[in-house]
Fold each of these.
Amino acid sequence: MAILNASLRSLLPMEMIKGKRSVSDHTNEAMNYITYLKNKIQELSVRRNELKNLSNLSVVVQPCCDGVQILVTTNVNEGLLLSEVLEILLREGLDVVHCFSSRENERLIYSIQSKGNDLGCLDLSGLQQKLNDLILSSRYI
């Protein structure tokens, strides 16, 4: 029994057993540590799922013909407001020519083609960042 208790004690963080000498104290601290680890696993699991969902979001902005093509991919349950995407494009001086959406499994794919008067002055990476920010902010509403 003493060997098993020593083994248990060696698995606990030092700050949990500091100043405690009895077997019952060590066992109690082991139960507290197990509860702490369970809670930590649950927290990390939730965080992992959030990060997995983030990786499912994408915005691609690329030049095409005499305009810009934007591909936005989100999860079906994300609640992206297409009107907000279109508003950003209008503020950037782009006119929407075509807008298509399709659903594939649990994902929504938007394809937007737009034209602009002065595409040479358009910052494509800045536009992509604005759309990414919009998608990320819409997740937490």
Amino acid sequence: MTARTAPTSPRLKRLALGFAAAALLAGQGCASVSRETTGSVERPGAGQVAALPATQLDGALRSYGEAYEKNPKDKGGGMAFAAVLQMAGRNDQSLAVMQQVAIANPKDRDVLSAYGKALAAAGNLPKALETIRRAQTPDRPDWRLLSAEGAILDQMGQSDQARTLYRKALDLQPNEPTVLSNLGMSYVLTNDLASAEQYLRQAADTPGVDTRVRQNLALVVGLQGRFEEAKQIATAALPPQQAEANAAYLQKMLAQQNTWSMLKDKEKRG
């Protein structure tokens, strides 16, 4: 049986589900209200989220937290603070913030989208799906919401439905790297690593793509036993500090699958 059709191991599925959850953040930023490219707000240091130093994250939490306390009903400030909280792993607090923003802005599509993502990050997938679908409008479908809905369905084990939504999103926004990345990670869930690599490479070839896309590609390449190539992908064209952080991140992810040492041994034997 080939890797394309092999059943997904429980460890690989847990790892891929973690990435599916992270993929929800691809359309949500946390710095300031901005033009809608990959979301309604931009991240600080776009493309450098994984390598954001703890001191910068702490500063962002203080800054956005103070702004939120002054005006908890403000859409931009609340969404920004919630996204930074998610980056810090404080998903329950992020959800609480988004609940307040959603109460103040009950019909805002951006807010409902971010609220749905916060619900998913906190593990409430049914309500997240309901919220994302409520934000969508059939006469003006939003590719970001289609992609977010797909990521939730992937976490719920409905990968076929998820991929249909990703392709609908790509019809609306051709070659969008965040959608291609989500589609690629969807194939990781079913252990089709060759298809996953195909879509992730397409996403990674996009100029200015988020560094997380390269990390996902590196992970998939590493899971196929090409350790040195995976490390090169994870660290290519990055400043030394960020390259080191990405390499450490890759090692951590592969260690969860218990493959890091096996890959190194395999390369030595090869």
